[in-house]
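Table 4 source record.
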Amino acid sequence: MKYEIRKLNPELALTFADYLGNLDFGHAPHWATCYCRYYHNNCSRDEWQQRTGARNRQEAIEHIRSGNMKGYLAFDDDKCIGWCNANNVNEYLRLENDFDAIIKDKKVGCVICFVIHPEYRGRGVARQLLKQSVEGFKAQGYEAVIALPIDNKNEPEKLYRGTLNMYKENGFKEIERHDNMSIMWLDL
């Protein structure tokens, strides 16, 4: 099925916050307070765990409205059913020094998180979000896209970085592997 994919913009800031705020994160309760801000911060793990959901929600809204937080939302009619955090790799402060040798001086986009409504998982929503993200990066003159899927076959509901197969289907190549995490790369 084809869903409508919309680029995150200031008018969708509350839609984004309400979507994430109303999901059941019973499978990973600590995700309920994230609002997709984890990779945008480089605070310590202890500091991160002390942050509240209200603080992360407000920060997300502010960064969406200022244009610093980017990505795509998926809709089934007017119902928001999915989110993909897709931005310039340099916006993910937590990953700041991890890929310097790979990225060098290139303009590189990064796809880091997918949050798909439980009723829509397995229906291709993440694949459509990924495809739109890649097209968006191309349109903005990016040279490449990096992604970091984690192989987690025992807990498929925790595949928040996407699956290895969906990246391969979109032309990404695995350039490194660290335990169960792959570094996927797509030249644009």
